[in-house]
Design brief:
By secondary structure, the protein is of the alpha+beta class. The chain contains 15 helices and 16 strands. 44% of the residues lie in helices and 17% in strands. The protein has a six-stranded mixed beta sheet, with helices on both faces. A hairpin with an 8-residue loop joins strand 15 and strand 16.
Length: 460
Amino acid sequence: MDATTHRGGRRTRSPSVATLLSAVWPGLGQLYLGHRQAALVYAAPVVAAVVVLVAQAAGGLERFGLALLSPSVALTVLVLIGLLGLWRLLSMADAFLSAGGRRGLRAHPRRLWTVLGLTVAVVGVHGLGAYYAWSFYEAGSRIFVAEPGPGGETPGPGSSPGGEGMSGFPEATPIATPPSASARINVLLIGADWAPNRDHSLTDTLLVVSIDPATKSAVMVSLPRDLGRFPLSDGRIYQGKINSLLTYADAHRSEFPDGGLTTLVREVGYLIGVPIHYYAAINLPGFEAMIDAVGGVRIYNEKPIDDPEYSDWRDPSRRGFALSVGWHALDGQTALAFVRSRRGIGNNDFERARRQQQLLIALRAKLTDPAMAPRIPGLLAAAANTIRTNFPAERLPEMLDLGRQVADGAITRKVLGPPYAQRATDTSTYLLVPDMAAFARVSIELFGADSRYAQASSAP
């Protein structure tokens, strides 16, 4: 890199140094050359962009990452990264030429190599940033389902955007929306064993998360997969199990014209007594890819598992799953078995639900580890194949803030198995029939005046 020289008492500046400074920060090279006005012109847009970025990141990396899942935000960031990269290259070129870099290239051939090296470095840095932003944009575009069209129509089954893992998974229109910013928000989390080559999907995990912004409290309600013979909102009785309702309703449009997912969302809300505003469907087999994408998780297994009937979803001939008490590092395949196994001594749906929560906590700890940054694109690709939701992407940071305000002691957890439902005695199939009087009491206990059961009891 050529040094500063003096010619005829006049001090000159190194083109290489000027180019390097503008590569570090647009405008620094111009300032080095004494061109203050040009330095301000080049530096000002970058300063403004950094101020915006710092303001966005001030709420924490989790909040910023969730904001990027909004396709519009990710696309804006992607465009800004590209424009700032071009602006930096323009500043570098201007600094090089203003310092007389074009003159004397034969005498100082290293100048050209220096400029080329800095150009490659700048393009590489901005290209990496653009790759990350594109990963967020692509994942957000696939995770968040499209809003209904002008006539209320929605894409039918098989039209889920991209991704093998959730291709063809049914979609749903919003059943209701929160009436105000301070109103209770109810989200149904669905864990389904969906795969594109299967003709059915069992929703073995049905968990409603209800957050009350006014009281900064939350309710978590799980419905057992074996709940059956329950009343529907139109007065009929569904004779099957609730984990089969999505597939049955989707295949019998004459009985359920709204389709499987919309029907499931509505009827779960009807059962627990409050409307479901949004849903998030998680493909449990695809969850395996997410665990592998983060490099596995570490958990402490509190009870021994010995399930001789467990069947691998990819290869049904592979049967059986066992895990001893203690710490274990789980890869995706083992983690999936950990959350799906429900047979064997001391094992049941309720233990499985506990393990699912435990694994989600372990996954969250892994996701918040700064060392995960290089794995983010792969994780986002796995999430795009695993998750579908109609929750508004732009509200994710708001929900994160609200979730942080809810203390652990302000979370009420319920599983609507016994004593709220009893096993049917007239069939050999394990079937839990809800006690609707008990459902009404627990709904009023959990949701107060928001419960439809409370409103029905107070009606004249």
